[in-house]
Amino acid sequence: MKTTVLALAAALLASAAPATTLIDHANGLQVDAQGHLQHFTGLLVGDDGKVVRLLHDGEPLPKASMTVDVHGQTLLPGFIDAHGHVMELGTDALHLDLVGTRSLAELQQRLRDYAAQHPDARWIQGAGWNQELWPSKQFPTAADLDAIVPDRPVVLERVDGHALVANSAAMRAAGVTPQTPAPAGGEIIDGLFVDNAKALINRAIPAPTQAEMDQAFAKAQEILLGFGVTGVGSMSTSLDDWNTFRRAGDAGSLKVRLMVYLLGLDPLKAIPHPTPWLYGDRLRAQGVKFFADGALGSRGAWLKQPYSDAPNTIGNQLHSDADLRSQEDAAAAAGFQIATHAIGDAANAQVISTYEWLDSKYGLNRRWRIEHAQVVDCADLPRIGRAHIIASMQPTHQTSDRLMAEKRLGLSRLKCAYAWQSMLRTGARLAFGTDFPVESPNPFPGLAAAISRQDINDEPPGGWFPEERLSFEQALAAYTRGAAYAGFAEDKIGSLEPGKWADFVILDRDISKASVPELYRTQVLETWVGGKKVWSRAPAASAPERGR
Ligand SMILES: [Zn+2]
Known about the structure:
Elements: H1 2-16, E1 21-24, E2 27-31, E3 37-40, E4 42-45, E5 51-55, E6 66-69, E7 74-77, E8 79-84, H2 86-94, E9 96-97, H3 104-117, E10 124-129, H4 142-146, E11 154-158, E12 163-166, H5 168-173, E13 186-189, E14 192-195, H6 198-202, H7 210-226, E15 229-237, H8 239-251, E16 257-263, E17 283-291, H9 321-333, E18 337-342, H10 345-362, E19 369-372, H11 381-386, E20 390-393, H12 395-409, H13 420-425, E21 429-432, H14 443-452, H15 472-479, H16 481-486, E22 504-507, H17 516-520, E23 524-529, E24 532-536
Parallel strand pairs: 1-6, 2-7, 8-15, 9-10, 10-11, 15-16, 16-17, 17-18, 18-19, 19-20, 20-21
Antiparallel strand pairs: 1-4, 2-3, 4-5, 7-22, 11-12, 12-14, 13-14, 22-23, 23-24
Bound molecules: zinc ion.
């Protein structure tokens, strides 16, 4: 009798033993808390989806209910994009893609094809053009679009999202006439609507249905996971976006972890305070995003001195000091983290001053973030570290903007622009991302740019302001640990350690040994979130669809 009870107890214990998964034969790489590259050969993952422990060469293998042999392939923590626009990524992927158009004629051809393929679309929406890549360098006009689509509204956003061009039908639908004045912080020129003027057109676009938003979010997750991105600082999130994420969470289809930054104070009527982590640490409203200025490409970035190539303007200041301070104070008082877009040196100075003031009121541990921090006056740089500000930066902006930035600013003002190494030296924490869909969410071009200051064509030789290059470890840390820290999630993600989520990627090459051109071409083979494989490359598939 006694032995039977014992046997029964043993059987019960065995069945209650957690179902662990052993990930074996990995070339595991990550950056440790001291910033050194750490190697490991496998992972033991608990049935809760969290790491039980890392395995190293020569250690006896632990027992596990399932073993996954990765055949020596390279395994890293999932990438965290500290600054991306999730719904726009999915929406743009379903809209007319104008990335890479090399002339106005090519834009017009793509518009003609899309209009023919989408006869039922009430509005034709597209994004991704950049006139800097065209021989003419001229902004497109309403007339250029009317020549192709005269009968339906057409709205095409510039690649940086800071300007759009509308056709006459769109302007009619929006009630815009030649007499309509541009609002403060905006401009209207022949159908081109810059910064604050964009709203005149955007407000006339019919809102997407819930089903369209769900479809766009599903598309965005698929693109992100295909690039090995398992966590995102979801910037400029509207209430509708948030509700879309919630629907996915409720339906069990939320895979990517989203650290949400709401767009301004409006959504706080419905979400008055930061939420706890929801859906197994996959969703949290934790911050509020503000804008201090626009972008360099459309000369909306707010500068201390006039643009070198437009001496009549210093760009667009979007808030007075008092206004920015009072809005950010309201969000901070409600418990939110603050993230402020600042690109020009005047905007960065304004945001630093605002954060210094917030520090004096709330202390130094609130991790205020500057988004982009692209052009900083060298005199202001040390203040960033002193105020414990997080520099949320995008390495591929440097390679994409280089020639345009030289024209807009002149070389002397670029000494502390895209200044990653200088930023770290001030003591600031660096968090990397891509600002997708402004750039592709693919993290490998970002890593390559960060360590080389060269684009995919090895330009310029030796790197652009090469003293700002990062080591491989510094760059990888900014894309993993740094981005997790920037989102108050360093106890959950950003590295593979006991108790943290088993979010990892398997790559087609060892990126710690890859040359810069090889690093640019790295592909993800599998993406795992919470110990589950959520994406794998189809055999012989080409690169995942380019998400902008
Ligand atoms: Zn952005």
